[in-house]
Amino acid sequence: MRRIYSLFSRMSSHRKRLHLVCLFIMKHRIFNQDTIQQNRDSSGSYRSVPRLLLMNLLLAALLAGCGGAMAGSSELTGHILAVGSTALQPLVSTAAGQFQKVHPQVQIEVRGGDSTVGLDAVTSQQVDIGDSDIYANRALYPNPDLTDHIVCIIPNAMIVNPDVTVKSLTQQQIIDIFSTGKIRNWSQIGGPDLPVVLVVQDIASGTRDTFRKYILGGRDETGSLLQTSSSVNERDTVAQTPGAIGYLALSVLTSQVKTIAIDGQTPTEENIVAGRYAFWNGVFL
After folding, report:
1. What kind of architecture, by CATH, is found in domain 13-154?
2. For the segment 112-146, what is each residue's pLDDT rounded down to a tens digit?
3. What is the SS3 assignment for 146?
4. Distance CA 7, CA 127 (A)
5. In whole angstroms, how large is the CA radius of gyration of the chain?
6. Where are the domains of the chain?
7. What's the rounded Cα separation, in Å, for the pair 243 and 250?
8. DSSP 99
9. In sequence order, what are the beta bridge partners of 84?
10. Engineered SS bond to 206: which of 115, 171, 252, 276, CB 3.0-4.6 Å?
11. How far apart are alpha carbons 165 and 271 in whole angstroms?
12. How many CB atoms lie within 10 A of CB 21?
């Protein structure tokens, strides 16, 4: 396996060590960006990978192993600021908290925003770590010291307001809801007589980018859209809006909303590995 942990060549020692906390590789296989692209086909299926490291596995590994991995290092001090994807924020916060238990003299601040905010901030050296669930395109981020590190693969889900009784949508039905406008009322597909309300994330969101590429087939959303500023904001908006539908990383999913299967498939590790579920993306530090 290729070495994948060197975010900045000039990064100070304590920052490099924090990065290793989030790139925990002692027990699980972690894939770099080249591997992700080589094994994902145009439909979003994942091919020929022995094991996926999903969010819950990485969290378990961090909680179980980071303390032991770092306990022997010298005392560290300083301040670290990590900013970006709200889908990745729960993992980064957990890693930061675990690291600070071992190194209490290090202050770590984790903020949300969105993926582009994280990439822009780390490229301009306003923050130490940029959290993103989109790849740092070299045409847009040419800094030679910037390197994407895959920390896990995170599943996403379609979510609806609890009043919506539909349990599964085909990919074509999702396209007809978000792009073609052919489906405007839930009663058209066996649901209640409620207008379909489209809730989307900010245009800079990595989750939205993945949704458009792999679920909408590269199409844009059309019609009246309720645009939200974060994953949490989208979840809350769907929960409070009758007839609403949106999408969410599982890391921020709660019982406030209901999930809908895609083509009868749910966002499990087994379905992603088998290529039955396409709505997932790699997340980066």
Report:
1. 3-Layer(aba) Sandwich (3.40)
2. 877 777 777 778 888 888 777 766 767 777 777 77
3. coil
4. 12
5. 19
6. 13-154, 155-284
7. 21
8. H
9. 131
10. 115
11. 23
12. 23
CB-count burial class (<10 Å; 0-12, 13-18, 19+) for 48? exposed
For residue 182, the model assigns a pLDDT of: 97
CA distance 238 to 247: 9
CA distance 9 to 229: 33
- Per CATH, 13-154 and 155-284 having the same topology is answered yes
DSSP 147: -
The mean pLDDT of 48-71, rounded to a whole number, is 37
Task: Record the pTM.
Answer: 0.68
Residue 221 clears pLDDT 50, i.e. is over it = yes
CA separation for the pair 90, 260 (Å, rounded): 23
- Does domain 155-284 correspond to CATH entry 3.40.190.10? yes
**Do 66 and 151 form a contact (C-beta atoms < 8 A)?**
no
pLDDT at position 74 = 63
Give tens-digit pLDDT for 152-161.
778 999 999 9
Residue 239 pLDDT class (50, 70, 90 cuts): very high
Read off the tokens for 198. 């489209």
| Burial classification of residue 39, based on how many CB atoms lie within 10 Å of its CB (0-12 exposed, 13-18 middle, 19 or more buried) | middle
